[in-house]
């Protein structure tokens, strides 16, 4: 039979076990046994996966235990289509990276050039045939500097892109064709020609919900010319020949 173990002995044994585990982890972290030799990228487009694989090439040879999400995202900073990633260590030597891609919400026109822009106002790439896209459109001066991978300033398309982020749940989804955005005024032009006026972007989600509800009530074939939700408590529906056709 084992004799009684004192509390001091137990603490000593636990400390030794922890030190042993720490030592083994340190050895495993730097040993070539677990060095990354292959990177498996999933999610996004073929082009995005290729860009991610190329950007992460520098991780090869590094221990799987030393890989961190922060380091991976730093390497992917110049890949515009990546919103975020998840990664798994597949021992002994495979790093699996799952890409969560940026979602384009806007076609930005600058002179004769058009660009795809995400809801975070990040420029995803140039669009060669913008007329084929059903995404909402916005215009900035032709001399505006637009660079793939950059984030647009609010006054150069950024506000228009960000305003479209919550549209999916508003009832206006798939109907917005043109976005006109300034710091003071945000307007949407819908596919039926109806204009939705938001005033500034304060309480935007509430205003979108109200505009979507009104649109469902009057229908897309309505003869009205605008919905004004700049004052959410007093929305106004205007006809083509009147300044105020109704309110609620």
UniProtKB/TrEMBL annotation:
Q: Quick check: keyword Acetylation in the entry?
A: no
Provide one Gene Ontology cellular component.
Answer: plasma membrane
- Domain POTRA stretches: 34-100
> GO annotations under biological process?
cell division
| Alphabetized Gene3D superfamilies for the sequence | membrane protein fhac (3.10.20.310)
- One Pfam family hit: POTRA_1
InterPro entries in alphabetical order:
FtsQ_DivIB, POTRA_FtsQ_type
Q: Which UniProt keywords apply?
A: Cell cycle, Cell division, Cell membrane, Membrane, Transmembrane, Transmembrane helix
Key word Cell membrane present in the record? Answer: yes
* Name of the protein in its database record: Unannotated protein
Instruction: Please report the organism this UniProt entry assigns to the protein.
Output: freshwater metagenome
Taxonomy, top ranks, is: unclassified sequences, metagenomes, ecological metagenomes
């Amino acid at each position: 039979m084992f004799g009684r173990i004192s509390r001091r002995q137990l603490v000593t044994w636990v400390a030794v076990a922890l030190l042993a585990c720490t030592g083994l982890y340190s050895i495993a972290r730097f040993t070539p046994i677990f060095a990354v030799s292959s990177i498996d990228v999933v999610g996004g487009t073929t082009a995005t996966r290729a860009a991610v694989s190329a950007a992460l090439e520098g991780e090869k040879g590094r221990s799987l235990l030393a890989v961190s999400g922060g380091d991976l995202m730093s390497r992917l900073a110049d890949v515009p289509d990546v919103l975020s990633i998840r990664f798994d260590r597949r021992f002994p030597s495979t790093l699996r990276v799952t890409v969560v891609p940026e979602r384009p919400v806007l076609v930005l026109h600058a002179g004769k050039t058009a660009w795809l822009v995400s809801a975070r106002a990040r420029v995803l790439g140039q669009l060669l045939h913008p007329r084929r896209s059903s995404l909402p459109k916005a215009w900035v001066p032709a001399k505006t500097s637009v660079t793939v991978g950059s984030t647009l300033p609010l006054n150069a398309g950024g506000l228009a892109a960000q305003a479209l982020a919550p549209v999916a749940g508003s009832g206006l989804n798939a109907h917005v064709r043109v976005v006109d955005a300034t710091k003071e005024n945000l307007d949407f032009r819908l596919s039926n020609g109806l204009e939705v006026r938001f005033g500034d972007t304060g309480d935007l989600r509430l205003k979108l919900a109200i505009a979507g509800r009104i649109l469902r009530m009057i229908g897309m074939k309505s003869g009205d010319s605008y919905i004004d939700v700049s004052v959410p408590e007093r929305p106004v529906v205007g006809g083509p020949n009147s300044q105020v056709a109704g309110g609620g």
